[in-house]
Design brief:
13% of the residues lie in helices and 43% in strands. It is built from 1 helix and 6 strands.
Length: 97
Amino acid sequence: MDRYEGTAHLEWWANRSTCPARLPVRISPAAGNGTWNATVSPPLDRDAGEDLQLLIDTGPHFTLRFDADAATEVEVAHSGDVSRLRLRTGAAPDTGA
């Protein structure tokens, strides 16, 4: 799946039943196994960008859901532009346990 290029959705789950954010993204493989570059499409307006930044700051672990409903957990980061993201698999979310 780490070589997939196309459309997908990033989902940020507050708990098992609440998904406050679901963003359409276009992804392409990046250097490194299990790493993608993602572009939010359509681009986010200022308020939506601030909301996404807050979610990333709260917990950078999102679900990346592919068109065939396959999904994987990814860690989301950006370098100044929240419409252009770096996704990395293999980082398990901190459950606080």
